[in-house]
Design brief:
This protein is of the alpha+beta class. Helices cover about 20% and strands about 45% of the residues.
Length: about 140
């Protein structure tokens, strides 16, 4: 299994902890999955889909290099007020990312930094459905 897969799996495990208790304001009922889904394939709401995108390297002296992976978390809801629900779920996802800047993804390997690059929603045009996404970058030691 590659670092990309292991990092994505570790993040999914952490996102499944969004259960409406303690620091989280929403419950996503373990509906966090790897990959991309289309609207007509989603049956349970809310749903979060995590997909790894482009990956780059930064080469430094002494044969040291960083790996950077862009990851997208897409959130789908179906509610009377989907935008309010989306905002709360996106905020909870941001909390998970903030708490896991040093997340271990393999024995001895860990993420060094998670940077949120953008957060956006459909702005209500899909009501009663709602879609939002967080694009973030994960930096890890190769």
């Amino acid at each position: 299994m590659t670092a990309r897969s292991k990092i994505t799996d570790a993040l999914i495990t952490e996102l499944k902890k969004i259960n409406g208790k303690t620091i989280y304001s929403t419950n996503i009922f373990n509906n966090v999955f790897k990959g991309i889904k289309f609207w007509d394939s989603i049956n349970d709401y809310p749903a979060v889909y995590i997909a790894a995108g482009s990956e780059t390297r930064e080469y430094l002296p002494g044969d040291f290099k960083w790996g950077y992976i862009n990851i997208t978390a897409r959130v789908f809801v179906k509610e009377e007020d989907p935008q309010a629900r989306l905002e709360k779920i996106l905020e909870d996802i941001e909390t998970v990312l903030d708490l896991n800047n040093n997340l271990s993804y393999d024995s001895g390997q860990q993420i060094v930094e998670i940077r949120i690059l953008s957060i956006q929603t459909d702005e209500g045009i899909l009501t009663p459905y709602g879609a939002g996404e967080i694009l973030f970058q994960v930096r890890y030691d190769l």
